Amino acid sequence: MDYLNIEKEKILPVVTELNVLLANYQVYYQKLRNFHWNILGKNFFDLHSKFKEMYHDTRIKIDEVAERIITLKYHPISKLSDYLEVSKIKESSPLLSDKEMVENIIGDHKILLEQLGKVINRAEKATDQGTVDLIRPYVRRLEKSTWMLNTWSKDTKKEMNTTFVE
After folding, report:
1. How many domains does the structure of the chain reveal?
2. How many whole angstroms separate alpha carbon 3 and alpha carbon 133?
3. What end-to-end distance do the CA atoms of the chain give, in Å?
4. 163, part of any domain
């Protein structure tokens, strides 16, 4: 890794975790498109737009992660069959209610957050600051998105802690 100043042996675990993240994002992306196309009911307008916003953001992340793998001098996995095999996120039926779709996405966010943590951990061990700098903002944005989706699906009066409210 001449220009990166990272030992080749230390970078392989980072690339491995980045490829899992890439596969997760690819399946997640398609699931968001699936939900965007198939949302029905009174929440159609809100969720149709939200899912579109989310898959556009995911498409950018897919490209950034793949390009990071290439920067580290490896080929990213790129076959659909490999994505489905490697991804911890699984495909979903289009025949879900709006609430089931949101719950499904929140579950996927948990998987993504776990994988993002693994990537950061491996990258820190390899002193791969480029990967750390790429991935850290993904965590914050995904946590915020998860909070918003979770809030959408709850009755605030029953769910929020009122300790500091008079």
Report:
1. 1
2. 17
3. 59
4. no
Identify the three-state secondary structure at position 14.
Answer: helix
Cβ(131)–Cβ(123) under 8 Å? yes
Query: For residue 99, what is the domain's CATH number?
Result: 1.20.1260.10
pLDDT per residue, tens digit, the chain (166 aa), is: 467 878 888 999 999 999 999 999 999 999 999 999 999 999 999 999 999 999 999 999 999 999 999 999 999 999 999 999 999 999 999 999 999 999 999 999 999 999 999 999 999 999 999 999 999 999 999 999 999 999 998 876 666 666 776 6
Domain range for residue 32? 2-153
Which residue in 102, 98, 18 sits closest to 61, CA to CA? 18
